[in-house]
Hints:
Elements: H1 2-6, E1 11-14, E2 22-27, E3 38-41, H2 49-55, H3 62-67, E4 69-70, H4 76-87, E5 92-94, H5 96-99, H6 105-112, H7 115-120, E6 124-127, H8 151-159, H9 161-166, H10 174-182, E7 186-189, E8 194-198, E9 201-203, E10 209-210, H11 214-217, H12 233-248, H13 255-258, H14 261-273, E11 278-279, E12 282-283, H15 287-291, E13 293-295, E14 301-302, E15 318-319, E16 322-324, E17 339-340, E18 347-353, E19 358-362, E20 365-370, E21 373-380, E22 392-398, E23 409-417, E24 423-433, E25 442-446
Parallel strand pairs: 3-5, 3-6, 6-7, 24-25
Antiparallel strand pairs: 1-2, 1-5, 2-4, 7-8, 8-9, 9-10, 11-12, 13-16, 14-15, 17-18, 18-22, 18-25, 19-20, 20-21, 21-24, 22-23, 23-24
Amino acid sequence: MENRRQNVPKRVIVVGTDHSDQLYLQESARITQPFDYITLSHCWGTPTNEEKERFCTTSQNYPERLKGFSYHSLPKVFQDAITVTRELNKQYLWIDALCIIQGDDNDWKKEGARMEELYSSAYCTIASSSASGWNNGFLNRTQDFSQLQEVSSVQKIIDNFRELVDEGQLHTRAWVLQERALSRRTIYFTAQQTYWECGHGVRCENFSRIICPITRAYLLDPHFPNRLLTSGCKVTVMFLQELITDYSRRDITYPEKDKVVAFSSIAKRIAEALSTKVSFGIFDCILPRLLLWKRAGKHFDPIFDKDKSVPSWSWMFYNGKVDFLAYSTIRVPQFQSLNFDDSMRSINIEVREFEYHHMSGRDREYMIYADIGEIGCLYFDTDSAAEIESRNCVVIAMSHDDKDDPYKQYYILAVQRRSGEEEYERLGVGQVRAGYVSKESTSGKLL
């Protein structure tokens, strides 16, 4: 009973019986028996300040909502979620805007940090895939699946899962990634039909099973991400890189406040499964691989002050798309000197110098030239970083393990010394011939 009580939300909405107008918030600690609850994954859209104050739970209306409030006082997407919860014969529903006190930073920090438990412990998650905001319902159809007679038309609807769900507006949101990964079961309500996703795969309304790509199949694990334990290093690295790449391409309304926390629950679950530590989206057990991220989009802006919050070595420092240097060409993954310090906020590094005559930029890639011609390339995190005259680097990996081969490739981070003698910040990532990198190094910390 005690474990059960720890894994439920602090508050739930009691939805009552069919067609009842009466709802009320319930503090879970006051519910004496174990209970099932359903979660809603939805787009907030662009509600006005007046709508937020009217629909959200705040410190001002919280006492009244414990006593009761009206079904008809809520926006359509919440009403539809209540209808589905009742049809599933469940009494309790969790919606972030109603069950977390909005404007209360302490309540948000406590409940936001518990998303892992909240979604993984829910009976199922309702995903309002066809609703772009609060005022749009998701139970109305633009097309009636049951009336489609031609097999080709039915198959077309089945094949649209990627378009309607994976590429739909709901899944452009950063928060939704971990909501999907951590949920044991999810029901997607799209404009054309309803899909069911769980540990056994994805099925549509005629029970046809949809085959998912192997990397995304890990997100179907009801005990996410236990499948990684038997997958081997290469698959685990590929999965984590694709997960980070996916997350970086999603929209987030308040990046300074939510960029880290919206990934924290899924990161915590992965770290526990792999028996490792995680810091700002980088997992200790494959630290070198995940440091080799690079800017992928035109718009790539720092979110945080470099002296606070998120370190420069983390992809979370920026608001924009990231990719990773090619996995297949990296043969030797790390040097023993590369590791997190005790605080998990800085990385112990060995700093070297590399030589070149000049650089030539094309798009976001800068080719490095020496007397013999092209010797490597760099991808700077910002346009201004390319203008910094720094020849310091950290060797992360190499193309092969021949210590005496000057033609092998070093995979490096370009870094710049900060105010402290041993403190550095990241400028970018790239690769360069080993013969143009010094063998001597000095110890430092990457902040």
